[in-house]
Amino acid sequence: MNKHKLQAIALLSAVLCFFVISVSLSRSTYAYVFGQSHICRSDFYTEKTESSVPESSVPESSVPESSSEKPPTGDRTDTLPLAAVSAVSMMAAAIWMSFRRSRRNKDTND
Amino acid sequence: MNRKAIIAGAAAAALLTTGILVPSFAFLSGQSRKIVNRFVSALITVDLKETLVDPETGKKVDNEPRVYENTYLTVAGRTVDKDPTPTVAKNSASCYVYVGVRNEHTDIFSIEDIGTEWTLVTDSENKLGEGVTVYKYNAVVPKSDEDQQLSAVFEHVKISENFDGQFHGESETESAIEARAYAVQSEGTEALSDGYAIDYFSNSDVFEN
Description:
The structure holds two protein chains of two kinds. By secondary structure, chain A is mainly α. Chain A contains two helices and one strand; from the N terminus they run αβα. Helices cover 59% and strands 11% of the residues of chain A. The longest helix of chain A is centred in the C-terminal third of the chain and has 37 residues, at 73-109. Chain B is built from two helices and eleven strands; from the N terminus they run αβββββββββββα. The termini of chain B are far apart. At the A-B interface, strand 1 of A face strand 1, strand 2 and strand 11 of B.
């Protein structure tokens, strides 16, 4: 076995040893027991300024949309389908009438 | 010496050896009662609660069970009671105890009267999120047959006199201070436990659930 082969084997052994030692050290460093608690929470809130003013004295237009006084969104979603149905019905009626008119004109021409 | 004589000699030697050794083993062998070592993994159980507070006044309500959650009316300049107190459950391994606190509005709320047995942990690498501070209990909490309630991390929260009635955050009308306890085994982690705690509380999910 020549000198170069011996050097290569020595180098490989050193790398292998370094790897093994590193792994074992890192494992021993991060293996530990711990515990954690629940979250202990404190909520801070502000007093609503609206509550100090009589409701009757607040003009309706001055109530911002983002306040809790706005109507529930459910009301708005209920009216949307009705409007959509009405629009579709009107369009269908207009198309049907124009179709009838064109057909009547065609019959008259014939 | 011919071949037959060699074989016969070897056989005789083998028989002789067996005849000597087997009885010797019979005399020499013997066994003790077995020793069984059971290794049970150490556990650490820690809890964090605080005294119930009257939401309107921000003052403690006496003789009530400790709670996980309090609600406060925010009044500028007021100092309210808040005393997060960890308890290490019985039979937990000896440990270092930390409490992390997340304050959404450090400009409005300031933590006051930190307990003498607690020390603020330095976050030299700025790993902690905004408004998060970590406190360490100065002594090792030893293993015990009974639950060990530690002293409160702090006693009060001061609301800024400049609070204008709005939080100017995600919510204008609500804010929160959350706290969580973390305990890590003391054995073998003397020089590392602070780093573990900082790493733990630097995770933003820690205060979410």
